[in-house]
Write a structure and sequence with these properties.
- By secondary structure, the chain is of the alpha+beta class.
- The protein has helices at about 10-20, 65-90; strands at about 25, 35-40, 45, 50-55, 55-60.
- The strands form 2 sheets. It has a 3-stranded antiparallel beta sheet with strand order 1-2-5, with helices on one face. The chain has a two-stranded antiparallel ribbon with strand order 3-4.
- The longest helix is centred in the C-terminal third of the chain and has 27 residues, at about 65-90.
- It binds zinc ion (ZN).
- Zinc ion binds next to loops.
């Protein structure tokens, strides 16, 4: 399997959506058993952590359920887009 290509089909599809939305997918060097890489959104905005930050999602190489893992990534994308839409509204007020 080529570097940068996730072994799980469902996760691959989710990563494709993230990339299309401008997210950066960083593949972990060396490829540890569990952490495949990280996905970061292209915005500087309030994430789950306090302060301004990008959304960061850890990508597992061998999730217990690839469907759940893919859904978690898609949820993060949706939440990010909602946060961005909200902060743009606040700025225009
Ligand atoms: Zn975000």
């Amino acid at each position: 399997m080529a570097r940068g290509v996730h072994p799980k089909k469902e996760v691959r599809k989710a990563l494709k959506q993230l990339r299309a939305a401008g997210w950066t997918i960083e593949v972990a060097a060396g490829g540890s058993a569990h952490g495949w890489g990280t996905a970061m959104c292209p915005y500087q905005h309030r994430g789950d952590a306090a302060g301004m930050s990008r959304c960061v999602q850890r990508i597992l190489s061998t999730p217990r359920s690839e469907g759940d893992h893919a859904n978690r990534l898609r949820r993060a994308l949706r939440k990010c887009e909602q946060d961005v839409a909200r902060s743009e509204l606040e700025q225009s007020e």
